[in-house]
Amino acid sequence: MLLAGCAHQTYAPQPLQPTASAEAFNARSLADAGMGAVESWDLPTLTQAALRLHPDLAVARAQLKAARAAKISAGQKPNPTVSGNAEHHSRADNVSPWTMTLGVEIPVETHGKREARLEQATALSEAAKLDIALTAWQIRSRLRSRLLDWYAVQEQAAQLQKEADLRGKVVALLEARLKAGMVSGTDLADARLMWLKTQTQLEAESARTGEIRAALAAGIGIPAEALPKANLSLSGFQQETVSASASDIRIAALLNRIELRKALANYVAAEARLKLEVAKQYPDISLSPGYLWDQGDKIWSLGLSLVLPLFNKNEGPIAEARAQREVEAQRFNALQAAVIGDQSQAMAAWQSALNETDKARSLVSSQQARLAQTQRQFDAGYADRLELTTAQLELATAESAVLAAHLKAQRALGALEDAVQQPLDGSAPLPAMTEEDQ
């Protein structure tokens, strides 16, 4: 017993240092992800870096360790209890005045309580493991959304700059015609108003760059100053097709959705809790062997004790556990229905956005044909500079509509990926869990 008592763990304090942790975060960069030299950072490579750097995953992994520690507690057997006593009697005869008692109490759990506790802790550990996968997907989803915002602000600023330049040319041509008395001041005022409106929109888009850059860096888990400027690749957002059919996406939403698998694990834990509470109807047993040395007389004893279930048979906790199991079952059914609805809505929104993009591109084709015709008329002297510039402006406006529809389709594709919780661009599933997590 003395040797067993020496095998203790020691306490080692680990105080938090907010200043040091803040300095460590500010010193972070993508190089800390340990991915070597990356020539171009696109969504897959940025996702890999975020999965190694983002603090949310560290929290999820710490919660998994806590759940696994709970399995150790659930599997522990109760320790025996040792008691002793010594008495001294005041008597004058030759009999020893001492009475000494040594007793051991050995608890024995019955009816599979320990196995039920282990089953519950294992299910909760599985749910914590799925939290890592869910956190990884949420990191990837936010990162894609913020990278798409970065792509959108770059493309929209370029398109607005093109449109502003053309509107400026229209204003200059109308000013010349106004001096010649060929147009009214109202025509010039309307054109100047549209030019100023476009310039305001361009300034607003340019002002959003810093905010979006900071949000993108936060999505990776690094400070904004550490985000590379020149080698961010956004070519992946030009793709509008997916690597799976509609039926495959529907099946993946039901089989791959992490919340559904976590809900199943929570239901298994509720089942195990009910099993444990039912087992508690049957009392545990305590064996109490003992030795008594009573003034020279040696007495051996063996005791047995248990709680008599006279006033209750654990009905209350059993009812609570059974009700909680029903809650988890209904929660799973509701979540499954929501997943089906989310997937259907996301698929419909994505297909609608693709149709809208196709119509916008058809309008661009028509405007391109009109511009080509106007260019030929201008070259032949049948159209003036204002007509040609106006045709160019109309084409730029149609291209802006294509860009807006394309961005809408990309956001709808992100929502569809969130409904399935896996990439649909052909890339591999997320490496959310390390071997240690497994």
Automatic annotation (TrEMBL):
<dbReference type="InterPro" id="IPR003423">
    <property type="entry name" value="OMP_efflux"/>
</dbReference>
<dbReference type="Pfam" id="PF02321">
    <property type="entry name" value="OEP"/>
</dbReference>
<comment type="similarity">
    <text>Belongs to the outer membrane factor (OMF) (TC 1.B.17) family.</text>
</comment>
<dbReference type="InterPro" id="IPR010131">
    <property type="entry name" value="MdtP/NodT-like"/>
</dbReference>
<protein>
    <recommendedName>
        <fullName>Transporter</fullName>
    </recommendedName>
</protein>
<dbReference type="GO" id="GO:0015562">
    <property type="term" value="F:efflux transmembrane transporter activity"/>
</dbReference>
<feature type="region of interest" description="Disordered">
    <location>
        <begin position="70"/>
        <end position="92"/>
    </location>
</feature>
